[in-house]
Automatic annotation (TrEMBL):
Domain Terpene synthase metal-binding, residue spans: 1-85
Top-level taxonomic group: Eukaryota
Keywords, comma-separated and alphabetical: Metal-binding
Keyword flag DNA damage: no
Protein name, UniProt field: Terpene synthase metal-binding domain-containing protein
Pfam families in the cross-refs: Terpene_synth_C
InterPro entries: Isoprenoid_synthase_dom_sf, Terpene_synthase-like, Terpene_synthase_metal-bd
SUPFAM superfamilies hit by this protein: Terpenoid synthases
The keyword Cytoplasm belongs to this UniProt entry's keyword annotation: no
Length: 87
């Protein structure tokens, strides 16, 4: 949750500072955190009953590649949809 709030704060600083972040170095690195996929995956894990072990939660906090890839896809899809709504 702290990572999500920090990512939102960074986006607010970019917005109010009229700053355009660099795609790979800044925006996508921050976008992985602000996509909130990791929070969704963590809370979904709780509904899995016996599968929600301490080891499973430790694994998900290591940001596995499947979680990072899902976050990137979610962020880019969200950006495409919001861009289409603006114009």
């Amino acid at each position: 949750m702290k990572k999500l709030v920090r990512a939102y704060f960074q986006e607010a600083k970019w917005y109010y500072g009229n700053t355009v972040p660099r795609m790979e170095e800044e925006y996508m690195k921050n976008g992985i955190q602000s996509s909130s996929i990791s929070n969704l995956a963590t809370t979904s894990w709780l509904g899995m009953g016996d599968e929600a072990t301490k080891e499973a939660f430790k694994w998900i906090t290591t940001e596995p590649p499947i979680l990072v890839a899902s976050s990137i896809i979610g962020r880019l899809l969200n950006d495409i949809v919001s861009h289409e709504d603006l114009f």
